[in-house]
Amino acid sequence: MKTGLNFGLKTSLFYALLALLAFVGVGAFISLYGLEIYLEGRNALFIKEAQTAARLLSDIPEDVLRNQAGNYVREISQKSGARVTLIDNQGFVLGDSSIDPSTLENHLLRPEVQSALKGEVGLERRYSTTEGVRNLYVAVPVQEEPPVKTVLRMSVPTSVWDSDLGKINLYSWLAVGGGFALFLVLGLLFSGIVRKPVLEIISALRGFKEGRVTTIRSSRSDEFGLLASEINSLMEKVISLSVKSSSLEEKWQAYLGGEKEGILVLDPQFKVIQSSLQARQVLNLPERQILGKTLLESTLDHNLASAVERAIQTGGREKVIFDGRTLQIRGSPLKASPDEGAIIWIEDVSEIEALRVMKRDFVTNVSHELKTPVSSLKIMLETILQETPPSPEVQRDFLSRSLKEVEYLESLINALTRLSLIESGKAQFDMRVFDLRELLREIYDSFQERALDEGIEFQLEIPEEPLNVKADPLSLREAFLSILDNAFKFTPRGRMVQLQASRQGDWAIVHFRDQGIGISRDDLPRIFERFYKADKGRGTPGFGIGLSLAKHIIENFSGTISVISEEGKGALFFVKLPFHEGEI
Fold first, then answer.
1. What is the pLDDT of residues 119-138, one digit of tens each?
2. Residue 83 backbone dihedrals phi, psi, to 5 degrees
3. Least confident stretch, 96-105, 145-154, 533-542
4. Which of 97, 221, 464, 553 could form a disulfide with 77 if both were Cys (CB 3.0 to 4.6 A apart)?
């Protein structure tokens, strides 16, 4: 009986020891496995956060990114809580959120930077001599397509995560220690009870690693319950970090998009599942008319819908005319293919396109204005320099005509110089308060002779009360003369030109009305451009910069100039200047 008891005791102790060893092994496995998953999860989130910021920075022009590097890295650092560094492909630091980049050494030989320059993700743990702490570094390329020109690096002290790792280790081994006492007493009796929660924990950890979040359900108050609670808490923290990361991405998209680009997120059927305010403003559609519909259904515009599909498929930029405006569209699949949905960026580039046209026409117009006088000068001077020169009378005539061409060029250069000074804000104005009626009377008198010669009836209507404004009288006279010259130039003999002034509230209003040939609808938006002439044949004298010069002068005095016209029915230019209260 005693022997059997001893055998049973020894057997129980043997199995208890085996169970203990198994539990210790399982506990160590859980601890190491949990640490591995934790580190992988942390690293993955950190990498995703860096890639999100880098992807958004890739939309910024390179020169702007270099000049504003400090502002961008500080903004990213505020959102992420990490130290952020922007490095070019030569290893020079363009911006750092914590340290003056000029004091930092070249980073070209940093392992994580080398990896990023190859288009890969660089992940490195090492001691930072600059900060005096051990850091985790992650570096990613800003440009998706090679060659990589800029690298974004983010770093955090490992101490931020070491405390969490210590807690996981502590609770894991506390569970093992509690199990040691438990198994010594209960042995095989509780082996079945131990196995079940261990398998649940392992299953939950594996599911989490594969992207499935499963809460470990446990009502126990022992070490296993405590371990399950800590693992659940850890999973919640990781999920919270993921949500914050997504929130950061959305904020950065909104920040970088600003008022420039709108964003639409599409499902695999190209239906809009999310839209930014900017996108709705560009498309001029309410949210209820966009969400849950394709762009073809919401806009009824086949060109726009086709451009969106092409942008997603090619990854390039598409331009399309929508509602009278030029839109630029970029697209990108959310995953490997558009079958998983896509995101598109929409930008109204109408003004940019108009500026491009203006720039092209400006070069053409300047060339046209210079070509004729330069060609004339060349021909006349070559004639004078012939081996058999013309008679003195012909030479004198050619030189006189050459002088006129030179004077024309000099006038053109002076006008351009004057316009350039005003546009750049470098022009000097003699600002003072004066009665606008006196200036209008002077201009009226100066045009009387021209009106008689050209057979045009010229009328002046001004109020009896003073019309005080604050401006430079000579410059304002120059602007008014340009407008009147334009009115006389296009008014046929026997018609009328009117100059009228009045006060309307806080404004002094001057009307320049003519009964000329009018301005076509196509020309109307461009008449204030430099060198732009409505008569395509350019048979009308002048440089084509008078109205542009007038507009800039008036705007320098806080005024405005507008025009109403219809082809064949004359034109009405009206100038508004702030009325000045009080005595002169």
1. 898 888 888 877 778 888 99
2. -80, 135
3. 533-542
4. 97
- CATH H-level, domain 258-348: superfamily: PAS domain (3.30.450.20)
End-to-end Cα separation, the chain, in angstroms: 129
Token readout for 469 is: 């404004």
Strands 496-504 and 457-461: parallel
Token pair belonging to 486: 């334009």
Domain range 59-161, CATH class: alpha beta
DSSP state of 339: G
What gap in Å lies between CA 446 and CA 438, rounded to an integer?
13
Indicate where the chain has its CATH 1.10.287.130 domain(s).
353-424
DSSP-derived secondary structure for 443-482: HHHHTHHHHHHHT-EEEEE--SS--EEEE-HHHHHHHHHH
From CA 560, how far away is CA 39, in angstroms rounded?
Answer: 64
Place of tokens 């004057």: 418
Instruction: Give SS3 for 330.
Output: strand
CB burial class (10 A; 0-12, 13-18, 19+) of residue 466? middle
Asked if 21 contacts 218 with a C-beta cutoff of 8 angstroms, the reply is: no
The segment(s) of the chain belonging to CATH 3.30.450.20 are 59-161, 258-348
Question: Does CATH number 1.10.287.130 belong to domain 353-424?
Answer: yes
Order of strands, edge to edge, in the sheet holding 496-504? 457-461, 496-504, 507-514, 571-578, 560-565
Query: How does pLDDT run across 382-437, given as a tens digit for each residue?
Result: 777 776 667 777 777 767 776 766 666 666 666 666 666 666 666 778 899 999 99
Phi/psi-derived region of residue 562, left when phi > 0, alpha when psi is between -120 and 50, beta in every other case: beta
CB atoms within 10 A of CB 205: 21
User: 432-578, superfamily in CATH?
Assistant: Histidine kinase-like ATPase, C-terminal domain (3.30.565.10)
Name residue, tokens 């800039």. Answer: 552
Predicted TM-score of the model (pTM): 0.40
> Residue 40 carries which side chain, given as an amino acid letter?
E
